Amino acid sequence: MSNFINDAKWRYATKKFDATKKVSTEDFEILKEAIQLSASSYGLQPYKVFIIENPEIRAKIQPAAWGQTQIVDASHLLVFANITNFGDAEIDAYIKNLSETRGIPVESVQGYADFMKSKITTLPEEARNVWTAKQTYLALGNLLNAAAELKIDVTPMEGFEPAAVNEILGFDQLGLNASLIATIGYRHEEDATQHYAKVRKSNEELFINL
Amino acid sequence: MSNFINDAKWRYATKKFDATKKVSTEDFEILKEAIQLSASSYGLQPYKVFIIENPEIRAKIQPAAWGQTQIVDASHLLVFANITNFGDAEIDAYIKNLSETRGIPVESVQGYADFMKSKITTLPEEARNVWTAKQTYLALGNLLNAAAELKIDVTPMEGFEPAAVNEILGFDQLGLNASLIATIGYRHEEDATQHYAKVRKSNEELFINL
After folding, report:
1. Is residue B160 part of a domain?
2. The complex's ipTM?
3. Which SS3 state, helix, strand or coil, does residue A6 take?
4. Does A39 contact B13 at a Cβ distance shorter than 8 Å?
5. Which of A104, A134, A205, B9 to pair with A62, CA 20 to 30 A apart?
6. Given CB atoms, is A49 within the 8 Å cutoff of chain B?
7. Is the pTM of this model over 0.95?
8. pLDDT tens, B100-109?
9. Whole domain around residue A159: which residue ranges?
10. How far is A4 from chain B (nearest CA, A)?
């Protein structure tokens, strides 16, 4: 049996966290590495991840997230922020990183840089923002899966007002947009939803063979 | 050490598959279950997954996917198709499934159904299509991670012409849109990119602590 499947069955969108339990620094570093290793379009990782432990900031965010208690009760709050108006500067930074990581001259990958720029910077800004936001879902997926292996609970959230969170965190000035929230910690024993059967489409409903 | 991290370091976007190697039925069922267990917004799984082994269809798709050889050489080709114009019918189907899965009357979750409808069906169609497309990235993430545990290679692809793939697969008539492609199989020993160092943003670049 695959460990992945067992872990995926174990996880659920936690509704109530045990506010007395903190994720250890060691475990949290593993979660960060899982996010860092995420696949992304061209490997560009067009986002930042805000790790928010500060209780005052979390209290400010809670009303912008439908009042959900996980925002303040969880051990850690993460906000995945996609880069808006992604362009040449970000691609050049990636190419510099690639050049340094692999010990090859920037000139040798200039054609690749130009190719990426031709594909990306020709898109309208709105389409680029959608594209950078999509990449945060892959990073969130890595977080969910890595956390499940460690028996750490995560609630992925789209249920918040992006404009309000952007305002609280000053994202507009940073060229960022709040794409996803994840609260991380340990399920409260009183959270009844942990016992609910998972609702999933059947094989026949989900897959089509050609 | 986390198995997740080891597997994530092992995986890479395979450029050349060994066309002689097929993923076993047993392993492929695990990959399907990983996709099926993916988190999604409200658990709605607003997509279908096309499993394409037919070589003629794959040959047709290849030119619409920048001619990439993985399309025809991989063991399996998957197309993640997000549902377009997602609406009341899909939410009602989910509620029926929830009711049956958990053995509770539909009436007891009618308020939840109405809540989801108020949040989703009030969005403009384009925003709903973006939202369903985003969910396919979580499913793809599960595929990548489950495959890595089994030492099965996957190439995630945004590099294709959605309109052309939609046309080939008749997606417009099905109310679907080609969101992502994944080719699945085993890396060719001649694929030099498997030896390249991973390029990732540093901790300092990727994470911000508040």
Report:
1. yes
2. 0.98
3. helix
4. yes
5. A134
6. yes
7. yes
8. 999 999 999 9
9. 13-86+136-189
10. 6
